[in-house]
Each structure stands twice: as structure tokens, then as C-alpha cells.
UniProtKB/TrEMBL annotation:
Subcellular location: Endomembrane system
UniProt keyword annotation of Ribonucleoprotein present: no
Membrane topology type: Single-pass membrane protein
GO molecular function list: prostaglandin-E synthase activity
GO biological process terms on file: fatty acid biosynthetic process
Stated name of the protein: Prostaglandin E synthase 2
Pathway: Lipid metabolism; prostaglandin biosynthesis
Source organism superkingdom: Eukaryota
Reaction(s) catalysed by this chain's protein: prostaglandin H2 = prostaglandin E2; prostaglandin H2 = (12S)-hydroxy-(5Z,8E,10E)-heptadecatrienoate + malonaldehyde
Pfam families according to UniProt: GST_C_2, GST_N_3
Family: Belongs to the GST superfamily.
Length: 322
């Protein structure tokens, strides 16, 4: 209970004081709410960055803030036409994803696994104590184990799995595919957080999903929904300013239209079937699709048809229910 009370106090002070210290702002903005992760192993992300700053101010609540902020990187939701995995090529016996249900980067991994029809188990990590990944030196999610071998960083995980599936040919990213995977990491992710926390009501909507699907105790869930939503509402304004976003929805719509233009009339960027860039965009957008921001995006842009095709291509989850 002391942890929860401390968390509420710290969040209140953070909100009252407005912006975090300049150094904290730089780290927060650099990572962004959804972080970038393709070009560096240091894919810490917004959740850990903000947690580090709160840890300096109040170690007793660092875990709580880390957890709520980590879960806040998130939110989610697919029917055939999958890419079959030939059993003679890659048929792992045990695939386990350590995740936050709402995390977009975890959803990126799930989109890949679902598309390639690879069954996997899920371990929901408690974002406060992270006890489920205490065995690992890597303290961020997603973590994927494949027959006991650990993989980390969402883009690296996708690349390694893709290579395992296509090991007998020279299938590699095209220049176009690399460009748009980079666009996802360096631009699209920065547009999302100012949108899902744009208003108090949208912040509450986001945290309602987070606390319902995340691994929280009853008391943590209660505090996280309201204190976390309030904190992230203010943090999102700092991120909006840092990324020169004047209108949250306009930036989201522009990003969606930019992606549709990149398709150049094709069903997918990959042509007749999705490539890794398609899966990256879909994975990152998947958590927000059925929030208000995602509904607005589909209603006011041309992305809906592509997204529906992706839902069909990615198909039903291959998650193994335990």
C-alpha cells in the first residue's frame, strides 16, 4: 500500500510541476512513448526513460511509475490468407513471448507470429515488479524465447525469425521495405502517443484498456487508471511540442495518408502479400485501432481498406491458450 500511496503522490507532484527536468525531457522525447528500436540495441522506450527520472526523485515509487508508463506504451486487437511456414524449414517446439498485452512493439511480434502461423505462448509481465523476467538480464519487453534461446528488441526479433523462415534463399529487405520500416520507427511511433492521450477522456480510455488487460493487482489497477491517465495526458503535451506537432489528429491522418500513398495502388507494400514493412505498420497501429484515435483515423483517411486486408492476412491469433 505504501508503494501505491507513494506513486499517487509522485504523480501528483509531477503533474503540478509541469515539465520534468530538461535532461529528463530529452530522454523522454528521444525515446517517445513508443520508442524507436530498429537501429540500436538500446531500445529502452518511453516507459523506461520516464521511470528512470522518477527513480531519481523517489526510488520507492519507481517501480510503479515504470509499470504504468510501460503499460501506457500501449493498447489492441484478425482471418485467413496467412503465410504458411514450411515445417521442414522452421518448426520451433516452444515459442514464448514475454509482453505487456497493450504494448505496440509486443503486438508487432504477435502480428509476425500470427501471419507466419507460428504458435506461441504468452507470459504477461507485471510492469511494476517485472518478476516474470527476473531470469533475464534484459529488463524490457518484448522478450521472445525460441526453444530456450532468448531474442530481444522487436525489430531484431522480426529479422531473426524472418531469416530462420527464409534461410535457404536470399530474401532480404528491399530498399523500399527498409525505408518504410525506418519510417515506422522514426516517425509513425511519435505521432501515436499525443493522439491516444490527447484529451483527459482519451487518456482514461487508453488506461482503461491498459489496466483491464495488464498484469496489475486490484489496487494498482485502481491507481493506475486515474493517476496514470493524468500523468500521461501531461507528458503527451511535452512530446507533442518536442515533435513539432500542432494538431494531433492532423498529424495522425497525414501519417496514414502517407502510408497509403506509399502503397501506390498495390494491395500491400509487398505487392500481392504483406512484407515486413506492412507488418510493422500494422503491428504498431494494432493497439490503437479500436480506440477513439484509431476509429477517427479509419473514418477520416483511406487507410481502412489496407488495414482490413491486413487483419485478414494476419488472421486469427496463433497464441496457445494455457
Amino acid at each position: 500500500m505504501r508503494r501505491v500511496n507513494g506513486l499517487a503522490t509522485t504523480l501528483s507532484r509531477a503533474i503540478a510541476n509541469g515539465a520534468p527536468p530538461a535532461a529528463a525531457q530529452r530522454r523522454l522525447v528521444q525515446a517517445g512513448l513508443f520508442s524507436t528500436f530498429s537501429s540500436s540495441n538500446n531500445s529502452q522506450g518511453f516507459a523506461q526513460s520516464i521511470a528512470d527520472q522518477f527513480r531519481k526523485a523517489s526510488p520507492s515509487v519507481a517501480g510503479g511509475v515504470a509499470g504504468f508508463s510501460a503499460a501506457a506504451t500501449s493498447l489492441a486487437q484478425g482471418a485467413h490468407a496467412k503465410e504458411p511456414v514450411q515445417s521442414q524449414k522452421f518448426l520451433p517446439k516452444d515459442v514464448v513471448l514475454y509482453q505487456y498485452e497493450a504494448c505496440p512493439f509486443c503486438n508487432k511480434i504477435k502480428a509476425f507470429l500470427d501471419y507466419y502461423n507460428i504458435p506461441y505462448k504468452v507470459v504477461e509481465v507485471n510492469p511494476i515488479n517485472k518478476k516474470e523476467i527476473k531470469w533475464s538480464d534484459y529488463k524490457k519487453v518484448p522478450i521472445l524465447t525460441v526453444d530456450g534461446d532468448q531474442m530481444v528488441d522487436s525489430s531484431d526479433i522480426v529479422d531473426k525469425l524472418f531469416q530462420k523462415i527464409h534461410f535457404d534463399n536470399s530474401a532480404t529487405d528491399s530498399e523500399e521495405e527498409r525505408k518504410w520500416r525506418g519510417w515506422v520507427d522514426n516517425h509513425l511511433v511519435h505521432v501515436l502517443s499525443p493522439n491516444i492521450y490527447r484529451s483527459p477522456s482519451e487518456a482514461l480510455e487508453s488506461f482503461d484498456y491498459i489496466t483491464t488487460h495488464g498484469n496489475f493487482s486490484f489496487t494498482e489497477r485502481l491507481v493506475a487508471k486515474y493517476a496514470g491517465a493524468a500523468a500521461m495526458y501531461f507528458v503527451s503535451k511535452k512530446l507533442k511540442k518536442r515533435h513539432n506537432i500542432t494538431d494531433e489528429r492532423a498529424s495522425l491522418y497525414e501519417a496514414a495518408e502517407t502510408w497509403v500513398d506509399a502503397l501506390k495502388g498495390r494491395q500491400y507494400l509487398g505487392g500481392s502479400k504483406p512484407n515486413l514493412a506492412d507488418l510493422a505498420v500494422f503491428g504498431v497501429l494494432r493497439p490503437i485501432r479500436y480506440l477513439k484515435s484509431g476509429k477517427d483515423m479509419v473514418e477520416h483517411t483511406r487507410i481502412g481498406e489496407w488495414y482490413s486486408r491486413m487483419e485478414t492476412s494476419v488472421g486469427e491469433p496463433c497464441r496457445i491458450k494455457e
